[in-house]
Predict the 3D structure of the following.
Amino acid sequence: MNELTKSGATVDGVRGDVLEPSEVERGRKSSRKVVADFQLSAAAVIVASGGIGANHDLVRENWPPRLGAPPERMITGVPDHVDGRMLSIAAAAGATVINRDRMWHYVEGIKNWNPIWSDHGIRILPGPSSLWLDAVGNRLPVPLYPGFDTLATLKYIRETGYDYSWFILTRKIIEREFALSGSEQNPDFTNKSWRKVLGRVGKGIPAPVKAFVDKGEDFIVERDLAKLVERMNALAGGTPLLSVQKIEREITARDAQLANPYGKDMQITAIRAARRYLGDRLIRTARPHRLLDPAAGPLIAVRLNILTRKTLGGLQTDLDGRVIGADGQSVPGLYAAGEVAGFGGGGMHGYAALEGTFLGGCIFSGRTAGRAAARSA
């Protein structure tokens, strides 16, 4: 019989609090009060509670030194309940938690203007053309371009000593290249309509993105570069870190490489390579152009925040999804699946991962744990 509890004490079965919501509103963390206790008993319990992304203190506590110092400020890419509580509850019941320092957080986070959970952030899924600058205006080094290497970029940003960076782009770029994570931000995909997907072509800024441009606190739109930089400094707060002259030099050096199809700017080379694929050429990669070309404007700056997301370590399990205890033996009746189990085993991805492979680990470990639990029942 499994022994777990939401309060952390060890009891027979699963015990916890019945919570009553009070004024659950979009954009406001709901206040809740305990109205009763409950207790459930089962021959098998499968823990599938996700990671730790909503608990910033726990993220900092487990932050890997290889990615620099923990950020002081982050925004949240997962709902409030993904707070790591079940990791500690399972550990109190005898489970082993391993690879705590394996985690995956994004660097292209923007505050949601219409939040659903606390500090709700959305990730930009960027095309290759935006100019990426750190907090003091240095262009990110090769090959840290938009959409290339998330964890390497996170390491670089943390080593600057700041928790944010900047995109500078144009209207033409944002029309083609900005998509946002989340099903609610992509109604054409979620409705499985290729006609709507192709309808993005030549239709201006997609409506979900336009809402962020108009209402999001991280977006700045200006025709004049000096005014743009002034507002970037104001948004960052504190001592101004950006100079117009430095940013103009970075942009001018980048723009100068467009005159020659064999230019040596590796980001522009990547843009041209992307456009050789018809799909990217149509709806994902803007035609190469000068950022300071008035016809491509206005200019847009986007403050990019660190966005918490995935736990790559977690509850150690065997090949049947059974949770392993400190003695190396399985905890009777206890299974784990998905992110709480590091997508399988307690960290099957290692210290990095390939984007797009997380869902498969959830599905496979869930099926494995479910079948094993059914056999034991």
The longest strand covers residues 299-311.
